[in-house]
Amino acid sequence: MRPHPRTLIRRDYCLATRERLDRLCFAGEPPPRWADAVWWVARRPDGFPVAFAGLRRRGFVWELVRAGVAPEARGEGLQLRLIRTREAFVARAGGGLVTTYTAAHGLASANNLIRAGYRLYRPRSAWGLAGSLYFSRRVGR
Ligand SMILES: CC(C)(COP(=O)(O)OP(=O)(O)OC[C@H]1O[C@@H](n2cnc3c(N)ncnc32)[C@H](O)[C@@H]1OP(=O)(O)O)[C@@H](O)C(=O)NCCC(=O)NCCS
Questions:
Q1: Strands, DSSP E only, in 12-95?
Q2: Is residue 98 a contact partner of residue 121, using CB atoms and an 8 Å limit?
Q3: What is the pTM of this model?
Q4: CATH superfamily of 8-139
Q5: How distant, in Å, are the alpha carbons of 18, 47, 76 from that of 140?
Q6: From the CB of 74, is ligand 1 less than 6 Å away?
Q7: What's the CA gap between 138 and 119, in Å, rounded?
Q8: Ligand 1 pocket check for 4: Cβ under 6 Å
Q9: Phi, psi of 41 (to 5 degrees)
Q10: What CA–CA distance (Å, rounded) separates 64 from 53?
């Protein structure tokens, strides 16, 4: 992993930026427009956006949603940084259970969740695609 030290992650509400990155990372899927999601974008020092990720709250449970890193910025550890950034937000909001899921073939995402301390669990009712792996971790309390 070769981190790019000056790539900054910030909260970001620019719909056009996020949807452009979303289309680049999730080819063929329409970008989601959740009204309740909070979004972050990682930008190079010149402002060029290279990664994004979202967070949603469902009652006492938080969900990490839709992390994507542009091909030219992959392998720099940005997905892990985006996980930690969203967890810091959850901790500041009082903490709680953070959940997410990955496709069964999403090994890079699963490994980053494991690096961040997540554990696999079996949800009572699955909401991802068939065969998804569900992860959770308690943050801040
Ligand atoms: C999955 C994804 C978010 C990972 O982001 P990332 O910030 O590159 O993650 P990492 O830096 O940990 O790199 C992931 C792996 O790719 C490898 N990698 C290195 N350079 C790479 C490159 N140029 N291109 C692709 N992968 C590369 C890394 O070595 C790492 O492997 P490791 O875990 O064995 O060390 C990113 O590949 C992506 O956006 N994919 C498409 C969308 C997607 O699947 N999102 C996740 C939905 S849950």
A1: 38-43, 49-58, 61-69
A2: no
A3: 0.95
A4: Gcn5-related N-acetyltransferase (GNAT) (3.40.630.30)
A5: 28, 31, 26
A6: yes
A7: 10
A8: no
A9: -130, 140
A10: 8
